[in-house]
Amino acid sequence: MPIVAKFYSFSPLKIFITLSVLFLLFSFSLYLKPHRNKELRNLSTQKQVSAGKEVWQRNNCHTCHQMYGLGGYLGPDLTNIMSKPGRTDAYIKGIITSGVKQMPAFQLSDKELTDLLFFLKAMNETGTANPTDYQININGTYTLKK
Amino acid sequence: MKTSYWLMRFALALLLLGMFFGHLASESYRFTDATQGILPFHVLRPLHVSSAYFGIIIGGLACVSLALFEIFPNLKLSKWLKIHLLLWLISICGIFYSYFTKDFSGREYWEFNPIWALPIFLSFVIFLFFILKNLLTEKKWPSYYWMWFTGIVFFLFVFLENYLWIFPYFKNDLISDLTLQWKVNGSIVGAVNQLLYGFSLYMMTKISGNSEMAHKKIAFALYFLGLFNLMFNWGHHIYLVPTSRFIHHLSYIVSMTEWIIFIKIIIDWKKQLSESKKYYYFFPYRFIMASEYWVAINLFLALLLSIPAVNLFTHGTHITVAHAMGTTIGINMMIILAGAFYYIAPPLLNKLTRITLNTLFWLVQSLLFLFILVLVIMGVKKSIWQFSDSSITFSQHQDSLSFIIVVFIVLGALLFFSLAGILLFLMQQSFIKKSKS
């Protein structure tokens, strides 16, 4: 009973501080993730992947395209574009520089194109964004099909 | 108080612009080429999102500042609001300049050059000092004070987090960076909602004359539940992203606590219906009530989308857009319009104005419902495409949607015109009010 009474005597400030501390701990655990991911830090192509990500950002590719279903809706999801049959480097470069249907032609330098492809390849290696690759579990979650 | 009115006018103008750019962007889906419209799609979409969302944020801040003028007759630091407004003007001009010159150095929803984020951050710091200086003069805070305080503090924290990607440490890890990006996008909506829901509660206490309702334990319980969700439920945006399973599970569990709010809304339904009849002809109340009905619809949709098994089918489809439109137009904009009517429009309107506004009100509600319905249908179709024969390309799938896309564009345009009618009326009234005073 005293514990219950003590709980009810909690001021909003105390609850606010408790929740905020938990939130900060949770946030900082996320900030440590890149530090724990040693594989990525040793990747020799890391610089080009980052440069490619900047090209993606500067050209606002996400306004039309998605990565893991996040982004625009005018074009297809590009998370695994590099592993689709027939999607060679030359093919992808051709699409970017010539445009197709709603997609305009982008005037990118050779370096920018190469960097962008590094980024797309690295994204492809992180996992699959194809929902058919997943199976639904009884508890309402889903996991990758084995 | 003049500055608060200017903040409100600024918000109304941005909302109007946001819808205008949104309409132009929607035309790219069918009528114009992505590059050959009035402006290219990759410029229009950021213009649409930034105008609309900054309109909502500034509208929320305007409502809170106007409420503070009402609560505290001797408001402290009110002159700081001028600096606050000036910083917003600088940042919005900079953001528009950034978009028109195609300087997209930011990322989704925040595509502008990060330099323009600085005045926004400073404006929030000033607003935090402004509200604290006044709120701290009272010892026992009603729950809406807590909501305003939380909204500002968390916006500041999450806004800083929004720019962690500038550092290579975060930028170089693709998945961690994507996780943080959606942590920010999810939480920032929660922070802005705290500002607006707090104002909605304040309005309810003013209209009903029952100030005690904001001090009740249930009001605080709902506030903390909202805060809890703001902090931990953003993970439902990234169920598909191969990040830690813990984030997904935590978000799933936390999101499910929102069923409590949904059940409470259903229980209170009958009481609300009788109240709605009582205050029906009072426009501020009517917009608040509209926002509450949209809360119920959107919360139900959000609860379904937060179940990973359902999310797998809806993620990356227009169902997510339907939810976003329901929240921004149905909830956020309705609360801002309620505030604008309360502080700007005269309580007694002539018959013609009343009939016109009444028609526009119901047009907006029905068009928004149809607009959301069309987005859900588009989403269901995309989901079916994703799970069916892989030989159909994305382009072929888009072509198969041509009729429904036209319906979506037409409904969007009608919704824009209806809402524009209300916004322009409020804008005009704000200047009439100024000349009278």
Automatic annotation (TrEMBL), chain B:
Biological process, per Gene Ontology: aerobic respiration
Q: Which SUPFAM superfamilies match?
A: Cytochrome c oxidase subunit I-like (SSF81442)
Cellular component aspect of the GO annotation:
membrane
GO MF assignments: cytochrome-c oxidase activity; heme binding
Q: InterPro entries under this entry?
A: Cyt_c_oxase-like_su1_dom, Cyt_c_oxase-like_su1_sf, Cyt_C_Oxase_1
Q: Please name the Pfam families in this protein's record.
A: COX1
Alphabetically list the UniProt keywords. Answer: Electron transport, Membrane, Respiratory chain, Transmembrane, Transmembrane helix, Transport
- Gene3D superfamilies in UniProt: Cytochrome c oxidase-like, subunit I domain (1.20.210.10)
TM region(s), chain numbering: 50-69, 81-100, 112-132, 144-166, 186-205, 217-234, 246-267, 287-309, 321-345, 357-380, 400-426
UniProt protein name: Cytochrome C oxidase subunit I
Q: State the species of origin.
A: Flavobacterium piscinae
